[in-house]
Amino acid sequence: MSSEPLVKLADVNFTYDRRPVLKGINMEIPRGKVIAIMGLSGCGKTTTLRLIGGQLKATSGAVTVNGQVVSELDNDGLYALRRRMGMLFQFGALFTDMTVYDNVAFQMREHTDLPEELIHDLVMMKLHAVGLRGAQKLMPSELSGGMARRVALARAIALDPMLMLYDEPFAGLDPISLSIVGKLIRTLNDALGISSVVVTHDIQESLKIVDYVYFVSEGKIVAEGTADEIRHSDEPYVHQFVWGEADGPVSFHYPAKPFGEQIYTEAPRAR
Amino acid sequence: MPDNGLTRALQGLGRRVTDRIWRLGFAARFLLATVMYSGTALRRFNLTIREIYFTGVLSLIIILVSGLFVGMVLGLQGYDTLQRYGSSEALGILVALSLVRELGPVVAALLFASRAGSAITAEIGLMKATEQLSAMEMMAVDPIARVVAPRFWAGVISMPLLAMLFSAMGIFGGYLVGVQLIGVDEGSFWSQMQASVDFREDILNGVIKSFVFGAIISWIAVFEGYDCEPTAEGVSGATTRTVVTSSLAILAADFILTALMFRGA
Ligand SMILES: Nc1ncnc2c1ncn2[C@@H]1O[C@H](COP(=O)(O)OP(=O)(O)OP(=O)(O)O)[C@@H](O)[C@H]1O
Ligand SMILES: [Mg+2]
């Protein structure tokens, strides 16, 4: 295996309509590692994942995955690349018209000619890995949020990808499911030899499992480092994020006029 | 350019018109893509059959019941008019021709648009809103080939069959009212119908109509679903638009087709 990173973002800019979302992102995802992208809501984390998955094209700069520049691939090339990626969507995105079993079997049936008996065994292995072998006959509507997330995880690793993208895997989970999912991400990464990107704002949980962290704020990387470096960092931005402080360089408020001014000038006129 | 109310109104109008045309072009490209990526839907025909069940078979009840009632009303109204001219035995012709040429294809299509078209839009729209289409793309499966095309073809295939069943039920309804209830002569009801309904002129043209309507409804339904804003309001708005747009399109297309088919006949 080459030592060149699996994913590389070089000076990537991305603009939605005319609003810049990412401004000059440089990022590397080494093979076999779990990295986290952290930042406040709306800072462009999901956008970064979609750029890696080729669902969006960078306005400028290059996203390279496994030696291929994603935006230069044609449809077939992109689909071939995506077969080797798994993505966990924020809300699972399970197919609601299929059972848990069929959801996990979906890619195997679409992309391989494996006989149904073999698919059965593979599906059971994947469901076992997320601890939901017993739920195979349920429909997605019968699952709790955490269970749905785990089924989606089993579905994402169905074809043994080389790269896993997790969009907010921890959002809305109870503390126990949260640490189960966290451990799963790490275990799967190491057992299957995957590389993983975890997008999250759950800093405490992700510091336990990741190797390297990027902090994104307003479309730029403002800090990066290994989990230990981040924990002991005294950079004000990181410190504020790790300890969840309200005061610091990160403003909790979306840019606005001073509060008093807005209250007095924008009050709706009495009818 | 002076920035007054008139220019602004004109600009707004212009923007709306260009938006519409742009969207129409987008819909046309979408249809092209759907047809081009139909390989999966036709090769793995069980995908399409499943959708035929959801769109076609589940529309059966409403189509059959409506057909029966429309035919019964035709029987009553037709008899009332025909007997003024002393030709009530022509009731069979009147019922059959109105159903096969017009009411069968058109009313069945209107019902199909509101029963199945809206369901297709809502289903695809919800799949989009819940990121299922996105997830499919990330699994290297093209949602147009896997989700859109089977639904499109299912609609195109179901519509003519439903229209035929509608007409058959309608003729039966006309027979019930005309022959069994009012007492028109049974022999002339059927024999006159057989003698004057032409296979090519009447039946085949009716089938062609319903085929076109099926394509229009399915196209609008899958496009609105795929193109909708991925929110709850977006999906509900798209569902309404499917019913409204396809109903208008059916009626307009019916006029055009009728003008082309029955010219001078
Ligand atoms: N389809 C879109 N069209 C226009 N702007 C968008 C679109 N999707 C996202 N944005 C904007 O891009 C910015 C980044 O969005 P993104 O979804 O990447 O945020 P995020 O970091 O994932 O946030 P969260 O943590 O809330 O999921 C946001 O400011 C958002 O308003
Ligand atoms: Mg996000």
Q: What can you see in these coordinates?
A:
The complex is a heterodimer of chains A (271) and B (265). Chain A is α/β, with parallel strands linked by helices. Chain A has helices at residues 45-52, 75-82, 100-111, 116-129, 145-156, 175-192, 203-209, 227-231, 236-243, 259-266; strands at 7-16, 19-29, 34-38, 60-65, 68-69, 85-88, 163-167, 195-200, 212-217, 220-226. Chain A has one domain: Rossmann fold. In chain A, helix 3 (100-111) packs across helix 4 (116-129), helix 3 runs parallel beside helix 5 (145-156) and helix 6 (175-192) runs parallel beside helix 7. Chain A has ten helices and ten strands. Chain B has helices at residues 5-36, 39-43, 45-55, 60-82, 91-129, 132-138, 143-182, 186-196, 199-227, 232-261. Chain B is mostly helical and 265 residues long. Chain B is built from ten helices and no strands. In chain B, helix 9 runs antiparallel to helix 10. The interface between A and B is medium-sized, with 21 and 15 residues. Bound molecules: adenosine-5'-triphosphate and magnesium ion (MG). The site of adenosine-5'-triphosphate has 10 residues of chain A, from helix 1. Residues 16-17, 21, 41-47 of chain A line the site of adenosine-5'-triphosphate.
